[in-house]
Structures are given as C-alpha cells and as structure tokens.
Amino acid sequence: MPDPGNIAPDFTLPRDGGTSVTLSALRPAPVVLFFYPRDDTSGCTKEALAFTALKDAFAESGAEVLGISRDTVEKHQKFRDKHDLGVPLLSDADSDICEQYGVWKQKSMYGKTFWGIERTTFLIDGEGRIARVWPKVKVPGHADEVLDAVRAL
C-alpha cells in the first residue's frame, strides 16, 4: 500500500457511462479514491450514497471523487442508476490497480478464506502525492471525515 508522501500509482480505467478516467489527467485537482468491495451491497451502497450526498461540497473544495471496484462497467451503471449515485464508478476488473494500491487482500468470513477488496480510501493532492490513507474504512461518518481532510489540504 502506498504511504502518504508517495506518488499515487497512475491509471486509466473505464467508468460508468462508457468513458474512461486517467488519474494524472485530473491534476491539479485533489482526488479522493474510495475502493469498495462490490456494487449494490449494504456497506458499499451506504458509502457511495454518503459520497454522493457530499458531491457538491467536494466540488466546491475542488476535489474529484472516484469509486473503484472490480465490478464491470455494466454493473456500475445499474448500481448508479438504481441508487441515483453522483460519483463516477471505475472498473478494475483484473484487480491490477487494486493490487498497486495494496487493497486486494486475503480476507476471511465464516471460516472461509477468499481474495477481495479491503474498503480503503486515498486522498491524493494536486501534485499526485498521497496525502492521506484510510484503511479498513468503517462507513458511518467516513465521507465527512474525508471532506474535512480535503478542505485541510
């Protein structure tokens, strides 16, 4: 997992709506990357809705907010439309970017071990450096905390 102060790994990923996003092309805007396990699950929906609710506040602070999971663009579009989400959702279907950011982890649930995305958020400053990392995110209040960190940049 990249540490604060490191240059954020650059990427170009497809997004809902059929276009793609290149991280470095968003400079000098700060960028919030929230990695989440799966579309349309309880925690992931709450997280995406929380970032959507604060979309205007992030925009006023000059920040871009992007969600990333391994789900396909088609699943992202259904998820976005079902919940009227207002943040772009990027597809990392082969988990390459998840691995570069260190969020692709071995997890266990009910005695079974599997690989998946550990809910993690990165704040990237306008120079492309990681300003802050929130590993093992707990959803309640998280989007507000990230917004405070963006405002403090």
Description:
29% of the residues lie in helices and 27% in strands. With 153 residues, the chain is an alpha/beta fold. The protein has a single domain, classed as Glutaredoxin. It starts with 11 loop residues before the first strand and ends with a helix. It catalyses: a hydroperoxide + [thioredoxin]-dithiol = an alcohol + [thioredoxin]-disulfide + H2O.
Q: Care to give the gist of this entry?
A:
The protein has helices spanning 42-53, 55-60, 73-83, 96-100, 142-152; strands spanning 12-14, 20-22, 31-35, 64-69, 89-91, 104-109, 112-117, 120-124, 130-134. The chain is α/β, with parallel strands linked by helices and 153 residues long. The protein has a single domain (33-152), classed as Glutaredoxin (3-Layer(aba) Sandwich).
Supply the CATH architecture: 3-Layer(aba) Sandwich
Helix content: 25-40%
Approximately how much beta-strand content do the residues carry? 25-35%
Terminus-to-terminus distance: 21 Å
| Spatial strand arrangement across the major sheet | 5-4-3-8-9
Number of strands: 9
Total number of helices = 5
Q: Quick check: average pLDDT?
A: 95
Assign the CATH topology.
Glutaredoxin
Give the low-pLDDT segments: none
| CATH level-4 homologous superfamily | Glutaredoxin
What composes the largest sheet? 5 strands, mixed
Helix-and-strand structural type: alpha/beta
Q: What is the CATH first-level class name?
A: Alpha Beta
- How would the global form be characterised? globular
Rg from C-alpha positions? 14 Å
Order of helices and strands: EEEHHEHEHEEEEH
Q: Give the count of structural domains.
A: 1
